[in-house]
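Input:
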Amino acid sequence: MIPGKYRSVSGRAANNVNCGLHLVIQTSSLPEKSKVEFKLNKETPSFPGRLLQHDLERNYSSRQGDHIHLASSSMPSFPVLQRSSEEKILYSDRLTLERQKLTMCPIIDGEEHLRLLNFQHNFITRIQNISNLQRLIFLDLYDNQIEEISGLSTLRSLRVLLLGKNRIKKISNLENLKSLDVLDLHGNQITRIENVSHLCDLRVLNLARNLLSHVDNLNGLDSLTELNLRHNQITFVRDVDNLPCLQRLFLSFNNISTFESVCCLADSSSLSDITFDGNPIAQESWYKHTILQNMTQLRQLDMKRVTEEERRMASVVAKKEEEKRRESHKQSLLKEKKRLTINNVARKWDLQQHRIPSIATNQDRNVSDSPSQDPVSAFPEETGSLDSGLTNALQGLSVLDTHLVEVDGDTLSLYGSGALESLDRNWSVQTAGMVTTVSFTFIEFDEIVQVLPKLKIKFPNSLHLKFKETNLVMLQQFNALAQLRRVDQLTIDPQGNPVVNFTLWKYYVLFRLSHFSMQKINGTEVTQNDMIMAERLFGILAHVASSELPQYRLISILGDARKKQFRYLLETKGKKPGLVSEENNDSKKLAGENTNRATLNYTTRDFYNERLEEIKEKKKFCKMYMEDLVKEATEINMKNEALQKLWPQMFIELVRDAVIEIRNKNSYMKLCLQQITDQK
Amino acid sequence: MLSPERLALPDYEYLAQRHVLTYMEDAVCQLLENKEDISQYGIARFFTEYFNSVCQGTHILFREFSFIQATPHNRASFLRAFWRCFRTVGKNGDLLTMREYHCLLQLLCPDFPLELTQKAARIVLMDDAMDCLMSFSDFLFAFQIQFYYSEFLESVAAIYQDLLAGKNPNTVIVPTSSSGQHRQRPTVGEASVLEGVEASLFYQCLENLCDRHKYSCPPPALVKEVLSNVQRLTFYGFLVALSKHHGINQALGALPDKGDLMHDPATDEELERLLAQIPGLVNSATANPEASCLPSRTPPRVGSPWRPLHHARKLDAESDGSTEETDESET
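Output:
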């Protein structure tokens, strides 16, 4: 009859409210669906068995001699209830009308002392005709068809109101029930909690098996100790921290999936017992310890006691999770920064390549690098400024970098031409030694060529080079890679490197860099056939380049290359002379490895033009010099020719003069003697 | 040496015709540039080596474009060097794009201009679809014509345009700004109905051009031969015919005939030697087919196809056109 858990509430032993009644109802004008037949009580009331068709309850004990007289009521539709006076005296304060197939509340006359009224298991659709029962404390309308809470406005003493298993859609019309202690609305169709803020004495509120989707509006329920919200569709809970006495909260079988949706529970200091089973949150791996960590006041979770051990574990796990989350947050921040930087570099690159029309917006503020993410490779040499740069990043400032340098285990990635300067940095031997792959992106190949000697020194183990968007357009550019110590793998990304479109590029690379014995190009293994083909295609070129060049050209070309390397080396700061000579030996050794290819060099266009400019002066001088020589030669030639022409005539004149002189022997002798004496 | 024609010219002209000054200037320039290295083994030896290399045609290797272009001998040497170095590419059968050929050219001359290669490609592709692939021999012969006779071809292009426009360039025209308009005038009559210009008229203009041109041009007799075969021809048709003409190729003397283009036994031997040096290579199978097919294909002139240029010229002056048409089967 009255559900057991409410026993203590009403404060009286009300479990066996046996009202032995014989109920006869005259309902001629009622639309009657029930199979019950209603008879007029004209017969003797001493046959309780005959009259009571619905004596089903076990608690229902028939009494002898109880009978009611049902008089015709004043209103044609409402039945009127009367009890025998014996009954009235025996059970003056309680009235049970269970399973009476009532479709409406009967008018109850002369029972103004009634304190307990039980209408369970009927078909009542509206609460009516009980306004006169102003002493009512306990009203049970469980399992009826009530659609709306109404007709209770006079029951100011009501303490227990049981409206479970009805069709109530809205909580309303409870304004005057200020003494309400227990309100049971389970099994209805209620969608919102409302109009309960005045119930400051309410201790138990049952809203299980309703249609609630969220919980709020709980302020004012200052005495609430137990709140049952099982079997709803609740996704979030609010305002629970406004309930100062709440001890038990049942949220089983709802739709709660995150702790954030019930985070107000953490602030409720009174809560000691909570259930979440049947929610999505209970399936999560972090469920238990998150709840325990956030609700340290809990004694029971899901109807099981919380042990100290569990609490400790929970806090440990929670701490670890927090750390992990912080770490991953930091990682994602840095990753985002990296992505932004790369985007910026890419945009600058495209601008440079005239792919997009230049918009003068690029502001590059701090040209700071973002150093390694690898926790192992700490940089003790880094200055404080870089550290602050990192924390700045963490604070979410958007700094537009123009280049990016990243060391990730064995890969050194350089984005943007400014990144090449980072090769000058003091890399720790350990980090530099680990790097086997160097990747260049968004940098002009000609600029990379200039730092290759530095690369060779600083990262001696770099075996794999990757180029993307580096403007490789000529086969000749690969000649520049020959100066490195060793390259095992080469990856030229087609994007931004037109050279890959050539049919012969791989063979040329294999040919020119044959002394490296490369293993892979662009991911595919190099086969013996490839090497043969490369040699077959370009072998003659090597032969011509070495044996058919005149000696002085060989020397000058090789000398040029060496001179250039010196220049690059000398440009780096803090170079010890000892190291320089080591490089000298190194390059000599290299030249010795493949002499027939060594003359195939690559000078960047700028240097080439520079050299041509330098030569112009010399050329001018040579031209002038030659012109002088030619002038001299032609003059001599002219004179020669003129002499040739004039000589016969001159010769004849000479002879004629001589003959004329000797014609007169005597005078000639005299003349000669005269000349001799004159000479003395 | 003391041929009368030589003495007939005044000094400067003689020197200029033989481009002696160019080589002298270049030699002195090279000397200046590398004086530290060269002073080690003597200037006389340097000059010997220099002029030897000029004779052999190796002086243009890895030199700047302005030098390569300077004299016809340089140009011919460059063509020959290109042929020798990359004949293997052609032999391999690869078809390459214009850009790739340009890359190969740049391997020998770093600042070779792209326009020349483009013009050469236009000859091969008949000014159509510039990204098409070309075979080595096609490209090489077209490139030869374009590079060796580049100034001549420019003038020919101008003449062609004039003829298309219906003007006869034999009449003396003072170049004014309106000459450009002539080209744009719609070509009525010939050009709209038929393509190109009339061959005989074209030849007359070219003959005049050859007479007064100071740059090198193909022998007029051969040009006449080319033009006599057709009624009308377009500009590129003319160039294609030029490039494919055996006689002109021989007159140039830089490249062997088309049939022999892939064969050069001397360098083949070199190549085999180089290949043998690759470690772990089993090449007996590859070597033999080469050696076996060589003897059967060697025409009588295999000894040293590369004769000094003046020698070839002399031949040309004596004989009228090429009479040594060897019967080769196309590969």
